[in-house]
Write a structure and sequence with these properties.
With 421 residues, this protein is α+β, with helices and mostly antiparallel strands. It contains 13 helices and 10 strands. A hairpin with a 4-residue loop joins strand 9 and strand 10. Helix 1 packs across helix 4 and helix 12 packs across helix 13. The termini are far apart.
């Protein structure tokens, strides 16, 4: 007897049981098994994850997801022979494949959640679970073979390859499964690369993305032939993709190529303080398409990688994190310049962020209309912490020392003479 006929017989027997009052025994036993399974799952979910090895923590999180279906399934399997001594057990027999399907779904998505993250995963899990439950329901009711036969009658041709809708759906499902497996393996490889000590962060990103791209390509090349789809039928799509890259996707392709160039030559790294055009900030993320700069105000600028490769980039921490800052100050013409310059240097030295080596220095820059222009130059080793507050603190210290020392900071003056009066 085939599996479909067995399930059909099971449904007929279950329908007969529903006409009798003693089906309440089956319902009661099934409800008790599900309730106990839910209680076990609730208790396990509320338990704290005990620290240990990574495999031990993964096992504990997996147990939390599997506690309900596995416990309920075991209780149903134990209750079936006991209840079979007095009543039919068709409802319990139907619950077994449903609970097995639920356990399989949770195992698959636990593996996916362990390898991936993102808001799309919850929606994908719901959609996948709906498809699996639908397939199980069709299989139990015996309608799945008829549906497959109907899909096989919808035929079409792509190039020289004859296809049907069922074959295409098989190909999509197989490729999706292979892609998920490839992405999961790629995530595991990325995790291992990120844990390698001494390896540059840019090289880690490059190797992980290359490995993921290679695995995705391999998944497609393996998945399609598994269901009998000839890869040569994709040649026309490859040609269309090439034309699209040459015209509409040219900028996007340039950004991706530029992203790999940036990651490989390591001219820009995570944490660098750079300026490109009007944007200045710390590099917080480098992807294959864009780079994120977080400014001192907290605003993040998303800069296309093509701009970074084709423009002049000022990297304040490329080989040396030290940066020189200059503060212009003007004093009156009657000022003792040596005294004023010494005060400027002392104001810079009073700030802990100003480096002692190279030491702060003051310079006479120009003899202006209203006074003498001086400049205080000093170095800082942590420009990523911001310089606006430091400038303000030093300017305030200069103002206080000038006030105490009687040094005048001039303002623009105009002398008007009236002739012939």
């Amino acid at each position: 007897m085939t599996a479909n006929s067995q399930f059909g017989r099971l449904l007929l027997d279950l329908w007969g049981d529903l006409q009798q009052a003693d089906v309440l025994w089956q319902v009661g036993v099934l409800v008790c098994c599900l309730a106990l399974g839910w209680l076990a799952g609730h208790l396990v979910r509320n338990r704290q994850v005990v620290d240990g090895t990574a495999a031990w923590r993964i096992g504990q999180r997996g147990l939390k997801r599997l506690a309900f279906p596995v416990t309920a399934l075991m209780l149903v399997l134990l209750a079936r022979p006991v209840l079979a001594q007095w009543h039919h057990i068709n409802l319990l027999s139907l619950a077994v494949p449903l609970l097995v399907s639920l356990a399989i779904i949770r195992v698959v998505f636990f593996a996916l959640r362990h390898g991936f993250s993102g808001p799309w995963l919850a929606s994908f899990e719901r959609g996948f679970a709906f498809l699996v439950w639908g397939a199980v329901a069709l299989h139990i009711t015996g309608l799945l073979p008829d549906l497959i036969e109907l899909l096989e009658t919808i035929r079409f041709t792509v190039g020289k390859q004859p296809l049907n809708l069922w074959l295409v759906l098989q190909g999509i499902a197989t490729v999706m499964g292979m892609l998920l497996m490839a992405l999961w393996i790629g995530g595991a490889i990325e995790g291992r690369l990120m844990a390698v000590p001494g390896l540059d962060s840019n090289l880690r990103a490059v190797f992980s993305r290359l490995a993921r791209a290679a695995l995705i390509l391999l998944a497609v090349l393996i998945g399609l032939p598994l269901v009998g789809i000839d890869l040569t039928t994709l040649s026309m799509f490859g040609g269309a993709l090439g034309v699209g890259l040459g015209f509409g996707l040219q900028k996007i392709a340039a950004n991706y190529v530029s992203g790999f160039i940036i990651l490989l030559d390591r001219s820009i790294r995570i944490g660098d303080l750079i300026s490109v055009g009007a944007d200045r900030g710390q590099v917080t993320r480098i992807t294959t398409r864009y780079t994120v700069l977080k400014g001192m105000t907290g605003v993040e600028a998303i800069v296309p990688n093509e701009v970074l490769v084709g423009s002049v980039v000022q990297n304040e921490s490329f080989t040396d994190t030290r940066v020189r800052l200059a503060l212009p100050v003007q004093v009156a013409y009657g000022t003792d310049l040596e005294k004023a310059m010494a005060m400027l240097v002392e104001a810079a030295r009073s700030q802990p962020r100003a480096l002692a080596d190279p030491p702060p220095k003051a310079f006479v820059m120009a003899f202006a209309d209203s006074g003498i222009n001086l400049e205080l130059g000093f170095w800082v080793g942590d420009p990523e912490e911001g310089v606006q507050q430091l400038r303000s603190d030093i300017n305030l210290a200069i103002w206080r020392t000038f006030q105490a020392g009687g040094i005048e900071i001039p303002y623009p003056q105009r002398e008007v003479r009236l002739l012939g009066q």
